[in-house]
Amino acid sequence: xxxxxxxxxxxxxxxxxxxxxxxxxxxxxxxxxxxxxxxxxxxxxxxxxxxxxxxxxxxxxxxxxxxxxxxxxxxxxxxxxxxxxxxxxxxxxxxxxxxxxxxxxxxxxxxxxxxx
Amino acid sequence: xxxxxxxxxxxxxxxxxxxxxxxxxxxxxxxxxxxxxxxxxxxxxxxxxxxxxxxxxxxxxxxxxxxxxxxxxxxxxxxxxxxxxxxxxxxxxxxxxxxxxxxxxxxxxxxxx
Lengths: 116, 113
What we know:
The structure holds 2 protein chains of 2 kinds.
Chain A lengths: L3 E4 L2 E4 L5 E7 L5 E7 L6 E7 L5 E2 L10 E5 L2 E6 L8 E11 L2 E6 L3 E5 L1
Parallel strand pairs in A: 2-11
Antiparallel strand pairs in A: 1-3, 3-8, 4-5, 4-9, 5-6, 7-8, 9-10, 9-11
Chain B lengths: L8 E5 L4 E6 L8 E7 L6 E6 L4 E2 L4 E4 L5 E6 L8 E11 L3 E6 L3 E6 L1
């Protein structure tokens, strides 16, 4: 399975600022995903990022707030812009691989963001 | 909206089998059932998935009812390290053959010594 790393692992930011989260994969993957997990909640998909095309955002998430880059098949970034305390969450990068039993999705360790 | 319902919490004795139920009564014919778990402060870990046949791997077994409206994840010999939140998830297809995992609230499993 793919090995995924994220930077930073955690950060404390002031409201109004922006943070860019990096996701690095040890193999080439077509589809990458960004999720948000608010405290005590389940995962919510923010957007799907395919290399060479614009990210596709889920309802309730917009590019101005969460711009995403996908410059190659092993790397992506998510920026949380103009942050407010409501953006305090764990942000997770995920990739999809086609295994012998079908598609499997693997997750990075997450970035824990606190906005003050 | 989530397509699965799970009990919010369960307990299991160490060394015993843990049977985690999941209802997915609105699942469609081509939608898979996936199970992940999340140990505190870590990213979710893939466990197993299936469509209609029972599946087994080194981590667990997945039993899907014949009508596909429910399933059970079985951890055959639970250890303390299996304490985690277990998510039963339906994978749906969307336009352009894109796939999306629909996450529910999960079951918090506590394995007790």
